[in-house]
């Protein structure tokens, strides 16, 4: 396992550069976590007091018993704000945080919903707001209950449906405690979404600095000629390099996932969303690993690797929404970003953050985004094989 040992000897020389990225990232995360804990206090109950979320309602389906029952249900979680019918006034209220959610109920919503057609509520929220996600959860719960009634009792009228839903939802007990726990879980998911988004930047920088440097050392023309003359076969050498890269990736994931769990001040227990965050980051590391490998066998000097690590990590981070939320990026920017794997990684994290159930329909978009990332990894790996073959031909 001489190649395996040499891999980590070379990697050890890059440790100072890697530690800079790792230390800065973990330090900032720790500071933010301690600031959250300080602001919420240690008294437990003061951290998550039940408070109603200010919401603006634009009901265009006014003559509907179902919508009236829906709005009556929402009053348990929100307080309705009225800023007139002017769209600009509503936007200003949202911008100034006088409201965190604008909910538009389109005309014909009840009829479409009741008859199984696509019925979509239109929302406009503050980006990545915990309160907005909290309202989303309440809305989804009500509509899912309504779908169950319609599915098993197709003859039910909209008025009867509203009454039965009201009676069913009135029997909940300990609602306040559940709401606090639910809100804490939502905050935990938002923390992880930001954490794993920023982690993508660190992965790109660290992998290029570490893996690319090692691959460059092994893929120089003179070094490759020496390998051909050595008793270690090319197949054996490649296997050892692959094994070493996988060990490096595993160590990276274990360290940063553990750090994220320890620093998350809202974490109550492990849930499916956390597992999806971890799976998404694991897929993305495979993409970054293939990019780092390609850079390592393509560049002509070690100095270029450090420059590429800084430039590529920052470009992908700003373009894809790792630093600036995708909601604030223009459509043209997002269109360009969609041709990068980091865009789909960040998009997936944002989708997982809002996930409240684990049906196939809910997970479909997440799985598609993961497959797209894997597609990038396969395509880049194919390019690596072509470049590597050309290098071997030159060495011969």
Strand-helix topology:
Blueprint: H1 2-13, H2 15-40, E1 53-59, H3 65-74, E2 78-81, H4 87-95, E3 101-105, H5 109-114, E4 122-125, H6 130-152, H7 158-170, H8 175-218, H9 221-229, H10 234-263, H11 272-298, H12 302-320, H13 331-337, H14 341-353, H15 360-395
Parallel strand pairs: 1-2, 1-3
Antiparallel strand pairs: 3-4
Question: What would you note in describing this structure?
Answer:
- The relative contact order is 0.11.
- This protein starts with a helix and ends with a helix.
- The chain is 72% helix and 5% strand.
- Strands 2-1-3-4 form a four-stranded mixed beta sheet.
- It has 396 residues and is mainly alpha-helical.
- It folds into two domains: 2-38 and 187-395, no CATH class; 53-172, abc type-2 transporter like fold (3-Layer(aba) Sandwich), CATH 3.40.1710.
- Helix 9 (221-229) crosses helix 15 (360-395), helix 12 (302-320) packs across helix 14 and helix 14 (341-353) packs antiparallel against helix 15.
Strand content: 5-15%
| Termini Cα gap | 24 Å
Helix count, DSSP H or I runs of 4 or more residues: 15
Average residue pLDDT? 80
State the secondary-structure class: mainly alpha
Following the backbone from N to C, one meets helices and strands in this order, namely HHEHEHEHEHHHHHHHHHH
Give the overall shape, derived from the CA principal axes: elongated
Instruction: Work out the number of β strands.
Output: 4
Sheet with most strands: 4 strands, mixed
Structural domain tally: 2
What value does the Rg take, in angstroms? 26 Å
* Helix fraction by DSSP (H/I, runs of at least 4): over 70%
Oligomerization: single chain
* Low-confidence parts: 41-50, 171-177
Strands in their spatial order, largest beta sheet: 2-1-3-4
């Amino acid at each position: 396992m001489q190649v395996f040992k040499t891999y980590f000897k070379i990697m050890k020389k890059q440790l100072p550069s890697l530690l800079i990225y790792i230390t800065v990232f973990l330090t900032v995360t720790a500071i933010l976590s301690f600031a959250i804990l300080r602001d919420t206090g240690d008294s437990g109950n003061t951290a998550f007091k039940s408070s109603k979320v200010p919401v603006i309602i634009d009901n265009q389906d006014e003559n509907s018993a179902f919508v009236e029952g829906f709005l009556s249900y929402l009053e348990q979680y929100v307080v309705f704000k009225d800023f007139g019918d002017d769209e600009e006034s509503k936007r200003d209220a949202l911008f100034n945080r006088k409201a965190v959610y604008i909910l538009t109920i389109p005309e014909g919503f009840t009829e479409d919903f009741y008859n199984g057609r696509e019925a979509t509520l239109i929302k406009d929220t503050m980006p990545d707001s915990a309160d907005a996600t909290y309202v989303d959860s309440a809305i989804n719960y009500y509509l899912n209950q309504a779908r169950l009634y319609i599915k098993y009792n197709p003859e039910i009228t909209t008025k009867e449906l509203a009454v039965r839903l009201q009676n069913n939802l009135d029997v909940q007990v300990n609602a306040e405690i559940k709401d606090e726990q639910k809100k804490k879980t939502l905050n935990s998911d938002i923390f992880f979404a930001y954490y794993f988004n920023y982690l993508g930047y660190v992965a790109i920088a660290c992998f290029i600095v570490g893996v690319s440097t090692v691959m460059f050392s092994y893929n120089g023309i003179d070094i490759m000629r020496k390998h051909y003359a050595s008793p270690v076969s090319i197949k054996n050498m490649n296997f050892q390099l692959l094994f070493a890269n996988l060990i490096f990736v595993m160590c990276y994931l274990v360290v940063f996932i553990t750090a994220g769990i320890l620093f998350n001040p809202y974490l109550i227990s492990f849930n499916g969303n956390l597992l999806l965050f971890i799976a998404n980051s694991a897929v993305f590391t495979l993409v970054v690993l293939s990019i780092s490998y390609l850079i390592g066998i393509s560049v002509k000097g070690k100095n270029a690797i450090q420059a590429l690590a800084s430039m590529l990590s920052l470009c992908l981070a700003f373009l894809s929404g790792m630093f600036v939320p995708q909601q604030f990026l223009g459509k043209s920017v997002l269109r360009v970003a969609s041709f990068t794997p980091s865009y789909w990684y960040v998009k997936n994290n944002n989708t997982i953050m809002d996930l409240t159930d684990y049906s196939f329909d809910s997970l479909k978009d997440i799985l598609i985004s993961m497959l797209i990332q894997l597609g990038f990894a396969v395509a880049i790996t194919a390019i690596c094989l072509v470049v590597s073959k050309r290098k071997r031909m030159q060495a011969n």
